[in-house]
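debug: dumping io for the single-chain case to check the tokenizer round-trip. Nothing else runs in this session.
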Amino acid sequence: MTIKNVKIGQNFYKGNVICTVVDFIEERSMITGEVTGIKCMARANSLSTNVFEIPFATVVRNKIIKIKNTEK
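debug: decoded output
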């Protein structure tokens, strides 16, 4: 699933930390049932397991094309 050029599982940098998009959240009106917004949720690939909201533009701007293999 792709929303605003962001896919679930896409990796991006937030500062010096590599993060991964884990979910999209849809906000709906209780009265009309219309979708009023969509949020992008991500998780840092480090010791932390917290999920946080991140703007779609930040993910697109800081996306990782290819993760470098540092093993020799």
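debug: round-trip ok. The longest strand covers residues 17-28.
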